[in-house]
Structures are given as structure tokens and as C-alpha cells.
Amino acid sequence: MVGESRRWMILVVTTWIQAFTGTNLDFSSYSSHLKSVMGISQLQLNYLSVASDLGKLFGWCCGVSLFYFPLSLLLLVAAFMGLLGYGFQWLLIQRFISLPYVLVFLMCLLAGCSISWFNTLCYVLCIQHFPSNQPLALSLTSGFNGVSAALYTLIVNAINPNNDSLYLSLNALVPLFISTMALVPILLRQSQPPPWKLSGAAVPSDSLPFLLLNGIAVFTGLYLLLLESLSYNTYNNISVARILLGGAILLLVLPLSLPGIGFSRTSHSSSTMVEVEFLELQKELIEKRPTNMNISSATIDDYRYSTSTDDYSNDIAYRLPENQGRCCEVVPGNDQSMRLGEEHSAQMLVTRWDFWLYYIAYLCGGTIGLAYSNNLGQISESLGFGSETNTIVTLYSACSFFGRLLSAAPDFLKNKVYFARTGWLAAALVPTPLAFFWLAVSGSKIALHTSTGLIGLSSGFVFSAAVSVTSELFGPKSTGVNHNILITNIPLGSLLYGLLAALVYDSNIEISKQKDHLFIGEEEAATATATLVCMGRQCYQQTFFWWGCISLVGLACSFLLFLRTSSAYDHFERNQRKQMESELS
Questions:
Q1: How far, in Å, are 20, 167, 232, 323 from residue 240 at the CA level?
Q2: What is the pTM of this model?
């Protein structure tokens, strides 16, 4: 079936886009070089990493643009923003041009905006083509976003491992190349809808294809994590890196063989209807409404969820009668009555305690892991492992990738072990404070590597699961707006956590400078500290302690969110099981 193969092909190219557009994760690989070329302090370098995260504030612009422009055009716009943002930074670090600090800040902002647009467009592609399996599609594709740093490190090792500026040139050119390739299946028009859309029959079961794709993804992550170190440790490391790079590309291309072979078959057995989850969601909401709202059963039948497969300029489309909006109104003063899937406007969202618990859990959980990754270059350097910076960045990237894949566990296991997604979120935040406190008391190599892996797993899970949690708690129709409100915590957290780290780092440089004045004189001390580098465990010890305390706050908020929402998840699951049993009977 051509239509079926096409949608799986689009899923595969979406993973390619995500795999090569998580360019903010390799910032630590070239940040020390950029800092040296510009002659700036750690605090000023922190502001540049914050600028990249500030770009996420403009993700809503992409969502609005989808109403007026085709997705294919916006994909190219995102690629050219990255080309300009990273291209000018490459010219600067190569000393071809000289740019003022403010302009470099704006280039970092433009690059961050490019990443946000790519993420938004990938979310739209997943939701359009997999409406009944959004969490599985989103966790798979967004998972590859976490492996970007490992892939770029492998490419750099295959070209010239001693040239850090290659990261910037690759960040500028590779996403443009991948986006151009992805346009082929995206622009390919479907001649006719699949039979299950024409007849209203059940859609083919997606469980097995997603299981196979996740299996390939896990193998890809293990491949990058375990074999990438060979490109550093072998005598002819460039040749080895090129062989490993070829293997990684083969693994990325491998899923293309699956759609035309196993996924194009039409199966009507043991499959789920596209609309079952959404119809059940609406029934649950209506059942919990007061009787004076005059909602008729016909309203349920009028509800339909549809996606546009021929016009990609449109986002998710919901066909609702004009009076349907009343079924999702909030009962005034009933904040504690959480109804899973209830639509929330932006004004309604900020009045809910559940949202603010969720916001703080994300801010003090996932975002703090991102701040840690932004500082990995200076952390490894200060602990005496500067030569292993790329290896540590790859470790974080690979573990973040696995964390994102693990966010699909609730969907794979829901028929055997059901647990509220907010409970999974709380469990995922447990390793973060443990890792930070371990780093605070030990500067050993094993502590650095293990803690980096734990933080990567935790933050990766949060980043990937957040889209599904936002959709479930605050409504699928409002996800685009509400999730962009949620991720405003990323630039905020990046600024605050990075500022804390930079102040502690620079203060230890001043202490070292004062000690040097006492022993080697003023002129020699000035020369020794000209590079503004802090060495020793004390450079980040206080930072790790405070980050650990902050992550405990995030863990506490996530646990409270789980307690407040678990009953809604349980109620939804019971109703869903009843629906399935009634269909089978």
C-alpha cells in the first residue's frame, strides 16, 4: 500500500531531521575554543548558551506560520536560519571576520530559533501521520534529537579530530542537506487515501512497526556509545572513525527498508480505531460534567479527529460543532478536579496548580540537565579531563537518546503494567539529584562519567515525555500553544543555572589569581590567568551542590503532580478498558 509506506517513510526522514538538528548539544565541544578566540569570561560564554536556548521562545512563530505557508517551505527557512547562525560563528572562530559580542549573541539566538522550528515541524509531521500513536511517534523521533552530539563528534573525528571549528561548519551545513533530502517524501502527494480512511475500517496495527523501529534505535544508540570511543583510542583513529561513521549512516538508512516490506500490509485484526482514544476522551469529559450543561450524546458522535495528508500547511484539525466547546469548560473553583484531556486556553492554563507543579518539575529537572550539558566543556577541563571532553559529550548525548526512547515505555507496557505518565516522569527525575551530589563530593573520572550518563537519561526522558504529558493534562488541541508556554522555563533555567555556575567559576579564578600574586608576582599572574581558565574540583563543587538541591525541588513537585493526577489517569484507563471489552463482545 503506497499510502502506508509513505507515512512510515515520513517518520524515518523525521528521525533524520531530529538526529542532525540537535546542534545545541555539541556546544560544549567548541565552547572553550570560542571563549578563547573572543577573549570572554565564563559569564559571557554562559550568556551565549542562554541565547541559543532563548530561540525556543520563538517556536510559536513556526506554529502560526503553518496556517499560512506550507511545511516544506518552513523546513527550508529553519535550515537557512541555522546556516546563518552557525555560519557566522564559524567565520568568527576561524578569524575570517570579527564580530562584536552583541552580534554573536544574535547569531546564537538565530541558531536556537532554527532548532525550535525544526522540533515544531517534526512534531506536526508525527501528529499528522500518526494521530492514534502520537506518544510512540514523538518519543521515537525526538529521541534521535538527543544523539546529535554523538553523530557530529563521529563526523568530526572522521575528518579532523583536532579541529573544533568543524562542529560549527557541520551545524550550519548538515541540517540544510538533510532537510533538502526530507522534502522528497514530504512533497510526494498521495494519489488516494488508504483503504481504512475510505471505508472507515480499522487502521493497521502500528505496534509491531514501532517495536522494530525502537529496536533499531536502541542498537544505533549502543553503537554510537560503545564503539565511538574507538575513534579516539586506536592508532589510525581517522580511518576507524570513517568506518564507524559509515556504520552509523547505514543504521539511520536501515529503517527505509521496513516500510515497503512489512508495513504496507493491511491488517484488520487486533487493531485499534484511529478515533477510539479521542472519542473515549470526550466521553470521559462529558460523563464528569454537571447535568445542567445540556450535552447530548449526539455531540459525541459529531466529534471527529482528522489530519490533512495532502496539505501540510495545516496543523491538526478538529471537526467540532459550534457548541462543542462547552464540553471542555472548567467548573469555576474546581481546580483540584483534573479531567484528563480537557482543553485549556492560555489564560486557563496559568490558573491551574497542576501546570505550575509541572512547570517547576520541568524547570528543576529536565532544564537543569541541559544547563549541565552546556557546561560540560568547562567541567571536564576543570577536573583535568579536558582531552576527554568529546567523549563525555558523546556519553551525555547517547544517554539522553536512551532516556528519550524510554519515554515510550508507558505506551508499550500499558496493557501489562499501567502507571500514570506523571508517575513515570517523577521516577525519571530521581537520578538527577543523586548524580549532582556525587559530583559535589567526588571529582573522579568514574563519578564524572556515571553522573553524566544519569543526568542524560533523566533529562532526555523529561524532554521527550513532556509533549505527551502536556497533551494529556491540558488538551491535545492546545498542545502547540501550551507546550510553548511550558518550555519558556528552558531559557529561564539556562540563564539562572548558567549564571550560578559562571559566578562560582569566575570567583575561583579570582581566588587563584590572588594566590598567584603572592607567589609569582603580578606580571606572571596576569599572564597565567589571561586565558580565564579555572582548574580544580572547587570550580564547580558549590554549583553541583546547589544544582542537586534544586533538582530535589523538581522531584518533589513531580511527585505532587503525580498524586494530583493519578486518579484521572486511573479513571481514563478503566473507561478505556471497558470500551475495548465492549468492542470485543
A1: 21, 19, 9, 64
A2: 0.71
